[in-house]
Design a protein that fits this description.
heterodimer, A: 4-stranded antiparallel sheet, B: 3 helices
């Protein structure tokens, strides 16, 4: 059994929403419990940072990174990985086999983080550039439509007025013709 | 004067860590592609370590798969 035990470096991406709701320490304890459930021994679990993702994963654009150093067997690692992806705050994880745990990492241990010091900004739902451009075009079209309608209404009014004036002129002309005919008679 | 601009020399690195994004980015093109051994000046083992580090960093969304 001891022959089949290795040291692993693990990185977990935690859902910001879960960390915001339950607090970092509670989420870290959840991860620790899952690791221990599968027979892994976490030596170090520490906050590595909260940062923007290089590409969106699902609807997430930011995540909290949890760095861990643990000991255990490869089967346990596989089971733990499957468990993390099924349920819980971890939406991505990476396990790498290493020679030993560095001294500076061992100093961290299972780190307690002051919740007030960990600021998690809200995920800004930025649309991709192509979609944003399409939305802007659509917005411009919807804005231009009412003004176009007004123009059309003005145009119809103008044409109606012109028609009225033309009618008026026609009436005047017909009256003048009638008067001239009466004069002739 | 030379027709071509002289490139910045690549940093001297013994081992690569997927968490050291700034160093990894020095070995990537603006499109996010890994430079060749000819350009990085690394030996085969180092180039392989760099490749693995970049792939791990990409998986963890520390580096993009492509920059358009």
């Amino acid at each position: 059994m001891t022959d089949n035990t290795y040291t692993y470096q693990a990185m977990f991406l935690l859902d910001n929403q879960e960390v915001r709701q339950n607090g970092f320490n509670a989420v870290r304890d959840q991860v620790k419990a899952t690791l221990e459930k599968h027979g892994l021994t976490p030596r170090v679990l520490r906050l590595w940072g909260e940062r923007k993702l290089a590409y969106p994963i699902g609807q997430r654009r930011r995540a909290v990174y949890l760095l861990g150093w643990l000991e255990g067997g490869p089967e346990a690692v596989n089971q733990a990985r499957k468990d993390f992806y099924l349920v819980g705050p971890v939406f991505r994880c990476l396990f790498l086999r290493e020679e030993a745990i560095p001294e500076e990492e061992l100093a961290y241990g299972i780190e307690e983080v002051d919740e007030s010091s960990l600021v998690i900004p809200e995920d800004v739902d930025e649309a991709p550039p192509a979609e944003a451009a399409a939305e802007a075009e659509a917005a411009a079209e919807t804005e231009s439509k009412p003004t176009g309608g007004e123009d059309a209404a003005e145009a119809t009014e103008e044409t109606a007025a012109a028609a009225v004036s033309e009618d008026g002129e026609a009436e005047q002309a017909s009256e003048a013709v009638a008067a001239s005919q009466e004069d002739k008679e | 004067m030379s027709r071509f601009q002289k490139r910045k020399p690549m940093p001297k690195v013994d081992s690569f860590d997927f968490k050291d994004i700034e160093t990894l980015q020095r070995f990537l093109s603006p499109q996010g592609k890994l430079h060749s051994r000819k350009r990085t000046g690394l030996n085969a083992r180092q180039q392989r370590q760099l490749k693995h580090a970049v792939k791990h960093a990409r998986f963890l969304a520390l580096l993009p798969y492509e920059n358009r």
